[in-house]
Amino acid sequence: MKVAVACDHAGFPLKQIVLEAVRAAGHEPLDLGTHSTEAVDYPDYAEKAAHAILSGQAERGIVLCGSAVGANIAANKIKGIYAGICHDTYSAHQGVEHDNMNVLCLGARIIGPEPAREIVAAFLGARFVGNDPGQERHLRRVGKIRKLENASL
Question: Is the pTM of this model over 0.85?
Answer without folding.
Answer: yes
